[in-house]
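Incident log entry.

Two folding requests arrived from the same account within the same minute. Monitoring flagged them as a possible duplicate submission, but the sequences differ. Recording both here for audit purposes.

Request one:
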Amino acid sequence: MTNLPLQPTFNNTDVDLTTDTAWNWVLDVSKPPAFTQVGKPDSKLPFGHKYPSTIKVTARSLSSWNVTKQAADEPETSPVTCDSKCGAATELTLVPYGATNLRISAYPWTKSGAKDVN
């Protein structure tokens, strides 16, 4: 995490968050998601490591979805045609929005018919 220079107009500090893990995924909707209710959220700490629910999905990395000006570009229009730009099918666990520092509110999707989930 890097603190960027103070912005005089609003007198605030922007934070530049980066990650070493993949974030640019396309969801494969040919396989239904699996919802899990873990329990009730803790009202004292609603978003910590105890997520009240999770969603397991099949996804593929999308190499054409990049970062520009320290933010994710707009993803491709769905449905995405998965050819050489999509990686192998992988199972991801999604957690509630706001439960992590890096957040994605919407993913592109494909109907590639993934059968080989890692």
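Request two (distinct sequence, not a duplicate):
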Amino acid sequence: MSNKKRFSHRRISPILSLLMDRFNHDEIRGAQETVTTALLNRTLSAIISGFPPRIYAIERPDGVWDLLSGQAFLSAVYQYFTDQVAAPTTSDEHLSAFHGKRFSELHASDKRTLLNTAVELFYCDAPHKDDVQAMAFRAAIRDSQLLNQ
């Protein structure tokens, strides 16, 4: 019998355009600011391949999501979608449509592909970040990451 405490959480599959809208309205916190070429390359590759990472967050009472994981991924997506960075030139064939281009320079169908990519987002409600529920959620994330290495 397991001694693990159960906690309520939700799994949703928002598309990236919804997440970017939440970023624009300061409804997502915890993203990194520096995006490297390698990170942007991995991010675009994950999206195009159909394997974006899972994102974990805690929802605060004001509705803002504090990211627990996925910060680098969402930072790269946000900076690319807002033309702050251009896609790197790479030897990956499946990324050839993006080579050296900013998001605004992409063909409309490539923009739609990126914007309509669904991601898995898991979140729990927590009145305070140090709430027991939030700590249990962090532990579950840590466990799942260790299992997937």
